[in-house]
Amino acid sequence: MYKIKQIPEDFAVEEIIDLNLTEKGDYSYFLVEKKNWNTKDIIKIIAKRLNIRERRINIAGIKDKLALTKQHLSVFGINPRNLEKIKIKDVKIKFIGYGDERIRLGQAAENKFKIIVRNLDNIGRKISFIENYFDDQRFGGRNHLLGEALVKKEFRKFCYMLRLKWDKNDYIGAIRKLKKSMLTFYINSYQSLLWNKAVSSYLNSNYINCFSVDYSAGNLVFCSGKVDNIKFPVLGFGTEFSEKKISKIYNEILKEEKIKLEDFIFKEIPELVSEGVDRDLVVAVKDIKIKYFDDERNQGKRKAVLRFSLPPGSYGTIVVKKMFN
């Protein structure tokens, strides 16, 4: 079985983003290089050191922890020198300019990857695209289970899972003490799981020469031949199905999960309402290059040095899964 992330240097990601820089502005932009750090944890530390609220710090996307990553962040209303002075182990922070707008999720043009895949006996498949699945990082153990509990309004169960403290059966009060961004992340994780299930079923039903790969939340179906790209819905209360095939698949999943689209409306916590979005079924793997060498960390095995680019929101680990399973 192949191995990735044996060391952080085996997985490198660089965010490419177009920023409108100005001589002055309310927002300061920074390039953050980090190793073995979760993006959210870095934001917490920066906010604490600057004595500001985390919501004043914005990013284009979350990057892997077990990796070398380069990404941008914007901070509202600070002296950039104060942030550049902050010292965090295995983190470099560089001021790159001012602007009039905050960085927004999904704003990056693309992400460039360099991944070393180890412990190989054979070379990988040649690919030009990936099925645009959410990967293991999205689920993180039980994130999707927490999201499922919220969607199903199993608030007591949710509190037990996180060991939250509540008074007089006020589970909602306990949940609302958590950050909205974290609660939304749990719900998004559950939506991502449902999307992966629906896409796997859709591909299996509509294409030949498919193969299945296990991952932490089930299995993913990949296709050896061409797949036509469509906008495939991520479920929410406002989801409308443009194809009968997709509608049928999702209705079966909703029945299995014992939920309805209306369950993505949260009367008890209205700020968590999720309307649903569309996501590309497949995305191109651009500028893909691969070289093979002897693997110095696994005796008698080979390693692949893999370089490519993906759109924001797509997972480099899915490229590895499709190529080397």
What does this structure look like?
The structure is a single chain. By secondary structure, the protein is of the alpha+beta class. It folds into two domains: 18-107, Alpha-Beta Plaits; 129-284, no CATH class. Helix content is 29%, strand content 28%. The protein is built from nine helices and 14 strands. The strands form four sheets. Strands 1, 2, 3, 4, 5, 6, 13 and 14 form an eight-stranded mixed sheet that branches. Strands 7-12 form a two-stranded antiparallel ribbon. Strands 8-9 form a two-stranded antiparallel ribbon. A hairpin with an 8-residue loop joins strand 3 (57-59) and strand 4. Helix 7 crosses helix 8.
- Rg for CA atoms: 21 Å
Summing up helix and strand content along with how strands pair, one would put the structural category as alpha+beta
Unreliable residue runs = none
Nearest-integer average pLDDT: 95
Please give the alpha-carbon distance between the first and last residues: 8 Å
Task: Please describe the structure with a list of short key phrases separated by commas or semicolons.
alpha+beta, globular, 8-stranded mixed sheet, Alpha-Beta Plaits, 325 residues, 2 domains
Task: Describe what is shown at a glance.
With 325 residues, the protein is an alpha+beta fold.
How would the blueprint of this fold be written?
Layout: E1 11-16, E2 27-35, H1 39-50, E3 57-59, E4 68-76, H2 80-84, E5 91-99, E6 110-120, E7 129-131, H3 136-139, H4 143-151, H5 155-162, H6 171-175, H7 180-206, E8 210-215, E9 218-223, E10 231-234, H8 244-257, E11 277-280, E12 282-284, E13 286-294, E14 302-310, H9 316-324
Parallel strand pairs: 1-4
Antiparallel strand pairs: 1-6, 2-4, 2-5, 3-4, 6-14, 7-12, 8-9, 10-11, 13-14
